[in-house]
Each structure stands twice: as C-alpha cells, then as structure tokens.
Amino acid sequence: MTLTDTSRPHLLVVGAGLAGLTAANRALELGLRVSLLERFTDTGHVCASRTNGGVFHVGFRTVTADPKELFQVVRAANDHFGRPDVAQALADHAGRSVDWLRGLGTVFTAMQPDQGWKDTVLAPLGFHERTDMAWQGLGADRLITALEQRLVARGGELVRGARAKALLLQSGRVRGVRIERASGPAELFADAVLLADGGFEGNAEMVRRFITPHPENLLLRGCESGLGDGMRMAEAVGAKLIGMQAFYGHVLSADSLHREGLSPFPFLEFLATAGMIVDGSGTRFMDETLGGHIMSNTLARHGDGLGHVVFDQAMWEGIGQHFFCPPNPNLVRAGGTLHRADSIAELATLIKVPAAQLQAQVDAVNAEVSARASQQDRAQREGMTVFARGRYQHEAFAHAPYYAAPACAALTSTMGGIEIDGRSRVLDQQGEAIAGLYAAGSCTGGVEGGPAVGYIGGLIKALVFGLIGAEDFAASRGGDHVG
Ligand SMILES: Cc1cc2nc3c(=O)[nH]c(=O)nc-3n(C[C@H](O)[C@H](O)[C@H](O)COP(=O)(O)OP(=O)(O)OC[C@H]3O[C@@H](n4cnc5c(N)ncnc54)[C@H](O)[C@@H]3O)c2cc1C
Asked: 408 and which of 88, 254, 322, 428 could share a cystine (Cβ 3.0–4.6 Å)?
C-alpha cells in the first residue's frame, strides 16, 4: 500500500475486531479518512470478536439500566480498581453504543430467562448450545462481517496482512505505525493511531510472564488472534500497563487440554461453588463461593494449575444442571472424565489424593454450611441480615455417590493492558494522555479485572471505547471533520 499525502488517513486503527471496526466506522461517519490494519490475510479472519457468545452486558446487568446503577455495578465488581472516569464512560455510553450498532442494522435478541442481563444478544443464537466451539454464521460472526463490509463500502481502507509492530513518533506525538507484511516492512503515517489489537491470549511468553508459570495447563478457551503487540508498542512510547494478571476465565474439564469438544462448555465452577475444588494434594486453596472468574485465576496460579472439582449427588442433580450447556449431562456426553464413588475414601483413591486429607476438606465445607445455617437461624430470630462473603454458597456433602471431575483453568480473554482515560486516550506513567494515541477493547486495562477479577463484559468494553475513541479524536480536530 502506498499512501500519498492526499490519501493519508487521519486515523490509523490497528486490529479488525469489534473495537477496531467500531472506531473505524464511527470515524468514517464523522468525516475522517481511516485505514484499518489487520494482521490476518483472510476474509472472515478468526478473532475473539467473531467467536463469542454475543451477550452485551455490563457486569451482568442489562446495558439499558440507569447509568448510575451501571457505574456502581462496575465499581463494585472491580472493588474500585481502575479509574472512575473509565467506569463512568462505560456506564454512560453503554446504552447508546448498542443503539448505534442497532442503527447499523445489527439484530439483537434475548435469551430466556434473561435474568436481567441476557436481553441484548447478537442474533442468531447457537453458541451456548454445544460443548464445542460453534460460531460460524452466528451473531458475532455476522456483526464483524457486516462492519467490515460497511467500512469498505463507505470508503474506508481495510488493509489485511499488515501486522503493526511499532509506533512512530514525531515531535512527541504518535504519527504512525511501522508494520510488517509479506512483502516486507513499511511505515504508515496518520494524525493519530487507535490500538485495538485484542489481548495477549495468543502470546505464550506473555501468558507465562503475567498469568501462570504453567501455561501448558491453562486452556485457551478463545482464539490466538491477540499477541499483545499493542501493549508492547504503547509501553515503548511511555504508556502504562495495568492489571496484567487478571483474565476472564472459567473452570473446564482438564480433558479439554488434550481433547476437542469440551470447550467452551460446560463450566465446572458452579459445581465447585456448591462443593469444592482441591489441588493435587487433595487440599482446598480458595473460597470457592467467590465464583468462577476468580476461581479460574486462582487455579491457574496455584501449584501446577490443575485440580479436581468435588461434589455429591444432590449437587450434580441441582447446580450441575445450571447455566449454558451444563455439566450434567454434557460433561460425560462430550467424553469428559467424571469419577464416581460410594465413599470419600474411595473417591480419594480414584483421584490419587490422601483419603484423610480429602475427608478433612469435606468436613470443613460441611462445617461452614452448618455454621452459616445456625448464623442465619440466629439472625432470623433477632431480625438481622447475614451477608455472604461470596456470590454463591456451599452446600453440604450429604450422601453418596460422590464425584470428582479433573479441572483446569480456561483463559477466554486477558483483562489487563494499556491504561486509558474515559476518552479512550492512552495514558503515560504520570497519568497524562500521550498525544495522538488511543486504545480500545481487550488491549486496554483498568476497565475490568484487577485483584477482584471483576468481569464487566469484553464486548461492551470494545464497543464503547472504540466509539468514544473515534469521537474524541474527531472532536479534537475541530468541527470541520465532524458530521
Ligand atoms: C469464547 C468466547 C466467548 C465470549 N463471549 C462473550 C460474551 O458473550 N460477551 C462479552 O461481552 N464478551 C465475550 N467474549 C469476549 C469478547 O469477545 C472480547 O472481549 C472482544 O471481542 C474483544 O474485542 P477486541 O476488538 O478488543 O479484540 P479482538 O476481537 O481480539 O480483535 C483484535 C484484532 O486485532 C488483530 N491483531 C492482533 N495483533 C495485531 C497487529 N499487531 N496488527 C494488526 N492486527 C492485529 C487480531 O487479528 C484481531 O482481528 C468472549 C470471548 C470468547 C473468546
């Protein structure tokens, strides 16, 4: 590609996922010349934005909720990690960003029961119905194709096979990108750059450095499109990276590490919240009631990153049938290992842990359950409320048969990355915006994650900050380009 001065784009966008395509399309609407660089060469390239469940939500609340409530949801989920202006921007713009997509002809539907967060789902559905990865022709795939087509139809440039490697600076301002293509390296110039190249799931070295010393036992539940290039490029010009350790994850069958058909579903974490998860010595290592996102993060970092989810018959028949494509009956149906025994001692033998140790963990869970029950009885008598520490509650191991399923953590998307402000501007170590540089989507940090591993929703994060970035840049140029 040769860019003459007259065809030189105002905005260079890196990455054709939801964040990049949103920014590029919005910038075009606002009268700007736009080039979008995508490292993959093929149309229909596989990226997180194409291979997902399509549920737009803000921390498991509908995007149409009052922004005041959404702000509280984001701050509470993250335990106040990250910048308040970023949480505010997400809350304020979630509804109108989805309306913007709707205005382009995007079709949303609801999943039943919507439970207050599944009312804005990309149609057609189908992703949540199978244990293996199904995405072709479904809502997210269609949305990305439609955004690509719209960009090109409106005169935007989509450059495939161009991998951004470094940012170019002129007089302290980001002015372009150095790329690698099959034909060799090239330098592309623009008035500003918006990084939207996804997370670092596909970069084993970064996963090892930031997430787990045992990446071989961490299942990649998504795809390898994100290599962390944008984070490294931004860091090289002074940007701050934030919350790199946290990832959006689930607990899956450990068989999924070696066998197809057990990812993206079923999740084992709900069974673990009722029962427990133990490591290779038969020992619990976390409060399971905190839920699946923190459980997967904790498991990935604990020991060799593998464990067993242990539960009883009542849990299998109860919470085992909860959520999308649940473990009961899909785990066994899809070929996942499920050990079954008439006693805890026998189960311990099957999973090769000391029987006394496993029994002690079961006793501890049962003691927690009965302590909670007597606390609740007393509180009821005294008219008080008992607040649970976690989102979920243990259940008592009541009777045989007992079960254990080998488990691993599964990485869907990384949640840390480049720190931005509420206008999608990339910030340096002092919190000052780096001139000419924006970022949106999974390459950014501080929106979700943090020590509490608060998952807010990757799609809404990509959409909102892609939109805001384009608008802020257009506004910064003055009225002549803003339509
Ligand atoms: C299985 C699964 C289910 C999910 N379900 C949901 C859900 O229901 N709801 C929800 O909110 N979120 C969900 N997510 C998360 C959501 O899909 C992502 O957070 C979101 O799509 C990220 O969008 P993005 O544009 O930031 O990144 P991506 O979609 O990863 O796009 C980045 C693009 O940049 C390209 N790229 C990478 N490096 C370079 C480079 N150096 N130069 C040029 N191009 C580059 C990549 O090839 C890719 O096309 C799910 C994710 C997965 C994997």
From this structure: 254
What b/e readout covers 278-315, taking b as 16+ CB neighbours within 10 angstroms? bbeebbbbbbbbbbbbbbbbbbbbbeebbbbbbbbbbb
Rounded to 10 deg, the angle between the 84-103 and 67-77 helix axes is 130
Query: What average pLDDT is seen over the chain?
Result: 94
Four-way CATH pick for 11-245+415-481: 3.40.220.10, 3.50.50.60, 1.10.10.10, 3.30.310.80: 3.50.50.60
- Distance from C-alpha of 477 to C-alpha of 483, rounded to nearest angstrom: 12
Instruction: Report yes or no: 102 and 117 within 8 Å, Cβ to Cβ.
Output: no
Q: How far is CA 327 from CA 127, 250, 423, in A?
A: 16, 13, 42
Residue 391 above 80 pLDDT? no
- Asked if 183 and 225 touch (Cβ cutoff 8 Å), the reply is no
Distance CA 425, CA 414 (A): 20
What type of residue sits at position 224? E
Cα distance between residue 98 and residue 221, in whole Å: 26
- Bridging pattern class, strands 173-181 and 184-189: antiparallel
Q: pLDDT tens digits for 130-160?
A: 998 889 999 999 999 999 999 999 999 999 9
pLDDT band at 479 (very low <50, low <70, confident <90, very high): low
* 250-410 belongs to CATH 3.90.700.10: yes
Nearest residue CA, atom 37 of ligand 1? 197
The tens digit of pLDDT for each residue in 279-335 reads: 999 999 999 999 999 999 999 999 999 999 999 999 999 999 988 899 999 999 999
The residue nearest atom 2 of ligand 1, judged by CA position, is: 52
Residue 64 has pLDDT above 80, yes or no: yes
What pLDDT does residue 381 have? Answer: 79
| Segments making up each domain of the chain, as ranges | 11-245+415-481, 250-410
Q: How far is CA 110 from CA 122, 147, 321, 462, in A?
A: 9, 22, 21, 20
Given a cut of 70, whether residue 83 has pLDDT beyond it is yes
Residues with CB under 6 A from ligand 1: 14-20, 37-40, 45, 47-49, 51-55, 163-164, 196-198, 221-222, 225-227, 229, 264, 412-413, 441-442, 457-460, 462
CA atoms of 273 and 114, how far apart (whole Å): 22
Distance (Å, whole) CA 309 – CA 436 = 48
Separation CA 395–CA 225 (nearest Å)? 40
Return the ligand 1 atom nearest residue 441 CA: 26
pTM: 0.95
